[in-house]
UniProtKB/TrEMBL annotation:
Belongs to the RecA family. RadA subfamily. ATP binds at residues 98-105. PROSITE patterns: RECA_2 (PS50162). One of its GO terms (molecular function) is damaged DNA binding. It holds the Pfam family ChlI. It comes from Rhizobium loti. The middle region has homology to RecA with ATPase motifs including the RadA KNRFG motif, while the C-terminus is homologous to Lon protease. This is DNA repair protein RadA. The gene is radA. Keywords: ATP-binding, DNA damage, DNA repair, DNA-binding, Hydrolase, Metal-binding, Nucleotide-binding, Stress response, Zinc, Zinc-finger. A motif (RadA KNRFG motif) lies at residues 256-260. GO terms for cellular component: cytosol. DNA-dependent ATPase involved in processing of recombination intermediates, plays a role in repairing DNA breaks. Stimulates the branch migration of RecA-mediated strand transfer reactions, allowing the 3' invading strand to extend heteroduplex DNA faster. Binds ssDNA in the presence of ADP but not other nucleotides, has ATPase activity that is stimulated by ssDNA and various branched DNA structures, but inhibited by SSB. Does not have RecA's homology-searching function. Plays a role in repairing double-strand DNA breaks, probably involving stabilizing or processing branched DNA or blocked replication forks.
Length: 467
């Protein structure tokens, strides 16, 4: 019998320590080391397997050869299929994370009902809710008649024995991975060892049978999927379900996908009847826009292959503090400091005695540097009190020298802006070839100072018109 030994495993990163410490040496988190015993279970499982049999030779092949598209299961929910790269891939494992109550179970219930109605065998296993609770949700969503097979179970071995009975399921949904436990590990459910062992067992089943597996994961207060980060490396795709409590929309963001693009988003609107697809998110983010207020600029961004227009709002107000405030919502705070420094150093615009507040309307989050130009325009507009043209969009990256650098997909951004009724644009000089439309008459500054001069020039022209 294998000798039991004690290890301390970090619940944040999954690293193993031989003795307890207040701080994990691998990830730097405090008070995350938990004592877990191993007695020939998950910690020594691979070693036991190697001792039981000898390895077998596998067939080696070359890089060249026939390529087949990944077989997919299309749910019919357009935004979900877009985020997954065209549907669920057979034999793959997908991890879906999000805040509690954000709508993960609602979305997966709708997807399960849609697939089951098309003749697929769908198994929905919940470790957090009873079957009656899932039925109540299905009735509220109007999909109670769909032939989805339900179960409330947390033991991995029992789940595998259940889904192995009868026809192979096309999709298995496990809600959530933190509640599962396996007999191979002695730890409590939710610990790193149990989560990793349960995920390994389910992924092994998916690869061997061709069934698609969807694992639901909780999100910590830092926005990370709870449990070991190694689970994200084990699965084929990771989706984050984002949204603010005060807004009625939700964003399904792809952060990892072995079978498709990694920067796609799907946009949904939450209602009492469930999640509704939003085919044109730009109209959603610009729906309550006040066109004549200073400090507002429309940014034409890209999320994967989809252009998205969103309003960036800036407020620059005199400060009574020795160190003015810099508050950012929906953008990178360090990048705001960089844009402010460039405006002061190369454009002569002073913010040293002003508080600066920046917000991306609708709770949307921007990660690409192409928003620099729109942020700079909104800051200058708020400081001068001059409203920017209501029919103009902005995009471009700002370098530390004050130059405006080109960004990719300029033509797609302009097409989306033109479709929504915008008539002008400010974009970097040297962007890709612009064919007609609003791109033909776009203002293309080479330096940020050119844009500042243009905004300041609108004040002089306005004064001249009044005189």
């Amino acid at each position: 019998m294998a000798k039991s030994r004690v290890q301390f495993i970090c619940q944040n990163c999954g690293s193993v320590h031989q003795r307890w410490a207040g701080k994990c040496d691998a990830c730097g988190e405090w008070n995350t080391l938990v004592e877990e015993g191993t007695s020939g279970g998950i910690g020594s499982g691979p070693a036991n397997t190697r001792n039981a049999r000898k390895g077998r030779a596998v067939v080696l092949t070359t890089l060249s050869g026939d390529i087949e598209d990944a077989p997919r299961i299309i749910s019919g929910i357009g935004e979900l299929d877009r985020a997954t790269g065209g549907g669920f891939v057979r034999g793959s494992a997908l991890l879906v994370g999000g805040d509690p109550g954000i709508g993960k179970s609602t979305l997966l219930t709708q997807a399960a009902a849609a697939l089951a109605s098309k003749g697929h065998r769908i198994v929905y296993v919940s470790g957090e809710e009873a079957v009656a609770q899932i039925r109540l949700r299905a009735q509220r969503l109007g999909v109670a008649s769909a032939p989805v097979e339900l179960a409330a179970e947390t033991n991995v071995e029992d789940i595998l024995a259940t889904i192995a009975d009868g026809k192979r399921p096309d999709l298995v949904i496990l809600d959530s991975i933190q509640t599962l436990w396996t007999d191979l590990a002695d730890s409590a459910p939710g610990t790193v060892t149990q989560v990793r062992a349960a995920a390994q067992a389910m992924i092994r089943y998916a690869k061997s049978t061709g069934a698609a597996i969807v694992l639901v994961g909780h999100v910590t207060k830092e926005g990370q999927i709870a449990g070991p980060r190694v689970v994200e490396h084990m699965v084929d795709g990771v989706l984050y379900f984002e949204g603010e409590g005060g807004h009625h929309y939700r964003i399904l963001r792809t952060v990892k996908n072995r079978f498709g693009p990694t920067d796609e988003i799907g946009v949904f609107e939450m209602s009492d009847k469930g999640l509704r697809e939003v085919s044109n998110p730009s109209e959603l983010f610009l729906g309550e826009r006040h066109a004549k207020s200073p400090g507002a600029a429309v940014f034409a961004g890209m999320e994967g292959t989809r252009p998205v227009l969103v309003e960036i709002q800036a407020l620059v107000a005199p400060s009574s503090l020795g160190t003015p405030r810099r508050a950012v919502v929906g953008w990178d705070g360090a990048r705001l400091s960089m844009v402010l420094a460039v405006l002061e150093a190369h454009c002569g615009v002073r913010f040293g005695t002003h508080d600066v507040y920046l917000n991306v309307a609708g709770g949307y989050r921007i990660s690409e540097p192409a928003a620099d130009l729109a942020v700079a325009a909104a800051l200058v507009s708020s400081l001068t009190g001059l409203a920017l043209p209501a029919d103009c969009v902005y995009f471009g990256e700002i370098s530390l020298s004050g130059a405006v650098r080109p960004v990719a997909h300029a033509q797609q951004r302009l097409k989306e802006a033109e479709k929504l009724g915008f008539g002008s644009a400010v974009l970097p000089l040297g962007s890709e070839e612009l064919a007609g439309g609003i791109g033909a008459g776009a203002f293309q500054p080479t330096e940020l100072a050119d844009l500042v001069a243009r905004i300041a020039g609108s004040r002089r022209s306005r004064v001249d018109d009044e005189e």
